Amino acid sequence: MEQQWILHLKNISYNYPDGTLALDNLHVKIPKGQRIVFLGPNGSGKSTTFLHMNGVLKPQKGEVYYEGQKLSHKESKDLWRKVGIIFQDADTQLFSTSVYQEISFGPKNLGLSNEEVKKKVVEAMEATDVSKLQHKPVHFLSGGEKKRVSIADILAMDTEIILLDEPTISLDPKHATELMEILEELHKKGKTLIISTHDVNFAYSWGDYFYIMKEGKVLLEGSYQEVFKQQTLLKEANLEVPWILEIYYDLLEKGKIKAPYPPRNKQELLKYL
C-alpha cells in the first residue's frame, strides 16, 4: 500500500535577513497519523522547518505540498488552519485576558458559530484538564498550566497536524508525563504529531519516524531501528546515543541479555532482564 504523505517540504531553502542560511535544500515527507521527531542541536534548523510547515515562513526556494496538492504562496498562508504549532515558550503563544478567551480565539478566527466555538473550547479544556482554570488570567498560570493551555489552543482548532517545539523543556517530570498522556490520546485519534527536540532519550522512546538535522539539512532519516544504530552520524549531529541503548549494547556484548530487538523504554529493558 502506498504511503500517505500529509505534508511534503520539497527542496526548501531559506536565509534569514542577517544572511544566516537556516534551511539548505531541505526535503522531508510527513506520513499521516504518525509520531514524527526532528532531532538536532540548537541552530540545526528544526524551528525554521516548523515555521514553514505552519505557513508562518514562505520558502525562498522550493515547494510545499499538503495532501499531495502543491500550495501557492497565498495558499500556504492558510496552513495554520490545518497545521497547529505549540511553541517552546508558552508566553510567545498566550496573550488573551483569560484562559477561556485564549482557547476560543482560534475557533472564532475559523468563522465558527458561537455554539460551535463553545463546544470546541469545552472539549479542548476537558482534554487538557484546564476547565477549572477557564476564568483565570493566563499570566497567573504556572509553566505546566501554560503548556496545557497552549495545547488546548490547538485542540480547539482541530488541526490535522500538531507541531510541538521542544515540548518537554522546562517541565518537571510530573507535567512532562501529563503532556505525554495528552499526546498519546491525540495519536489514538489519528492526529499527525511532529515534535522537535534535542532530547534523544525522550525522542527514542516516543517517535515512529525520525529526521536528524544539522546545519539546515537532513543528515539521517528513518525508523528508530534505522536511525539509532548509526552512532557515528548521531555524534556528527552532536547527539548522544539514548542511555537505554548504551545499556542494551553493553549487556548484549557481555552475553547477559537476549532480545529480538532493542528496547524502547525502561519497562521493555526490565522484561529482557
UniProtKB/TrEMBL annotation:
Keywords: ATP-binding, Cell membrane, Membrane, Nucleotide-binding, Translocase, Transport. It holds the Pfam family ABC_tran. The keyword Cell membrane applies. SMART domains: AAA. GO terms for biological process: cobalt ion transport. Signal peptide: none annotated. Residues 7-240 form the ABC transporter domain. The keyword Chloroplast does not apply. GO terms for cellular component: ATP-binding cassette (ABC) transporter complex. Gene3D superfamilies: P-loop containing nucleotide triphosphate hydrolases. CDD domains: ABC_cobalt_CbiO_domain1. Belongs to the ABC transporter superfamily. This is ABC transporter ATP-binding protein. The lineage of its organism: Bacteria, Bacillati, Bacillota, Clostridia, Peptostreptococcales.
